[in-house]
Amino acid sequence: MSSNFAGVVVGFDGSAPSTAALDWAAAEAVRRGLALKVVLAVELGAALPMPMDSGAPWAMARIEAAAREVLDDAVDRARKTDPGLVVSTLVIDTAAAALVAASRSAALVVVGNRGHGDLVGTLLGSVAFGVTAHSQCPVAVIRGGSTRVPGPGAPVVVGVDGSPASDAAVDEACELADRSGAQLQVVAAYQVPVTGWVGTAPWLDVYPEEELADAAEGTAKAVLAQARGRVRRNHPALDVEFTAVRERPADALADRSRTAGVVVVGSRGRGGFRSLVLGSVSRGLVHLAESPVLVVHAPDQAYSTEA
Fold first, then answer.
1. What are the φ and ψ backbone dihedral angles of 156, each rounded to 5 degrees?
2. Half-sphere exposure for 220 (CA within 13 Å, toward CB)
3. Residue 68: enclosing H or E segment and its boundaries?
4. Cα 268 from chain centroid?
5. Model confidence over 226-251: pLDDT tens digits?
6. Where is the UspA domain (predicted)?
7. Tell me: the pLDDT tens digits for 46-71?
8. Sequence ranges of the chain with CATH classification 3.40.50.620
9. How many CA atoms lie within 13 A of 12 on its CB side?
């Protein structure tokens, strides 16, 4: 695969979620004015009916031909959005490895939240978590059958916690809202700790619940003020709503995904208050959200096996 493709990359395996990802990626490529690369990865070790060293050139040829047919159908579908938009690549590798390699130069990688195409060994959706963890560009995870895109009436929702990944998520969310004409909704969710570190000794023996709640809310509001300053400096004309809510971050963002065009979240993060750790919710959102989820890394963030 070319290492200098700077457009939108979408993984495809013929499944319904990957088809939804293909359609979403094609529309997003048009919005960004970028080319689209469709990647179909075949893991021959899983696809071949016998060990690789037994020699089965006929089987490899048939698998590659079948994969090429699936890929050609995907390209034809994407070209209905823009005939000059699409290039394609057939990769003999795992889907995760192929998409992470593509992310090194891509502007965006798009995957289905799960999938199983007609070709054995192209389990795309099962690698969505691995791609979000290791990708070196933002990753959009699309639910099967979803046609949701940001725009008027379909806001861009971003979760914030004050971390570098959260700042990067805010920047990406602003760009999405600006391009699509959508409202930007910035959400800082917080919880109040009710148990201590030793045994079951409650925090309430030391601090009244009201005092803990006030402290947590104050920290969330400080995080929102940081995000507000960032938004206003770079995108002063955006229609923006800032909300602090006492709720589990994953639940707060999943609730808003019901009407959102997209939910944007940092891949991992740590705010000023222990309950505001945001990055750990990206994994849950991929399962819970009803809208596409865009996972963003901090620019200098080390890549990990955890999303």
1. -90, 120
2. 26
3. helix 57-79
4. 12
5. 999 999 999 999 999 999 999 989 89
6. 8-143, 156-297
7. 555 555 455 566 667 788 888 889 89
8. 8-142, 156-296
9. 32
